[in-house]
Amino acid sequence: MSRQDTDDRKSTDDRKSTDGPLQNGQRPGSERAQGGIDGEALVEIDGLTKIYDPGGADVLAVDGLDLDIGHNEFVCLLGPSGCGKSTVLECIAGYLGPTEGEVRVDGERVRDPDPSRGVVFQENRLFPWKTIGENARFGPQMRSAVDDDRIEELLGDTGLDGFEDAYPHELSGGMQQRAELVRLLANDPDIMLMDEPFSGLDAMTKELMQEMLLDIWEEESRTVLFITHDVEEAIFLADRVVVMTARPGEVKEVIDVDLERPREFDMVTTEEFTSYKERAIDLIHDEAERAMAQAEGQ
């Protein structure tokens, strides 16, 4: 698809999404996706466009995306594979630079990685030659800011006390991801960027990790951007679910999740939760089909 074709489709989609009143708290993707517990944005994404050049052929991954994330807010990016979710996260982290547009954190343009923006990936990035305790201390050591009491507290909160001297390969997948959370939080980030961290876990472990993450988030009062393909996971975790289109990634719609906190997993069977889930599935279904068609076309 050419850039002009993309611009034409985007213009058409914008006209459609502004027709008619808002329903059920959902805002159309053409409006700026704003949010925040205190009404102020910590992360501001303005017109983010990213073009990759694999083998000399331009690939428009993200196209003019606008999104605000508030202080202490939990936001999930939900979308099909290849829609640019990870690209957005890596631009916030400072690992990638936008082709157009910009990302600002606390009013400052993001140009490089910074320990205030911690990242957890789908596959853990623990150093295999270091113990769990050494992994947790590595980031703070690089900043000469090790707090052993804090690390001990985090290990206890995540059920890893007693495993400080174990190596990553000696732990289960769920325990490794808990160690990743400890590593992340030991570095005291303001923003937690999480790229499908629980997707490789079995269903029961995944549920426990989701509840643990919410407990930590509520206690620590941090800002979270969480990427997932899992509709139920997104609704359970988030204050807002940002549904993205198939490539090129844009904001299709934002769902405000007005479910009581703290949340426990038995709420997934409630009528209110099911209503949110059905809405999200309806939004993502067409995008998943488009993403599949794109993949088959390639």
Please write out the topology:
Layout: H1 3-17, E1 27-28, E2 41-52, E3 59-70, E4 74-78, H2 85-93, E5 100-105, E6 108-109, E7 117-120, H3 132-142, H4 148-157, H5 173-186, E8 191-195, H6 203-220, E9 223-228, H7 231-237, E10 240-244, E11 251-256, H8 271-297
Parallel strand pairs: 4-9, 4-10, 7-8, 8-9
Antiparallel strand pairs: 1-11, 2-3, 2-5, 5-6, 10-11
Helix pairs in contact: 3-5, 4-5, 5-6, 7-8
Tags for this entry?
alpha/beta; single chain; 298 residues; Rossmann fold; 4-stranded antiparallel β-sheet
Explain what this protein looks like in three dimensions.
Mean pLDDT is 87; it is low at 1-31. A hairpin with a 2-residue loop joins β5 (100-105) and β6. This protein starts with a helix and ends with a helix. The chain has 298 residues and is α/β, with parallel strands linked by helices. The chain is built from eight helices and eleven strands. The chain has one domain (3-116, 189-297): P-loop containing nucleotide triphosphate hydrolases (Rossmann fold).
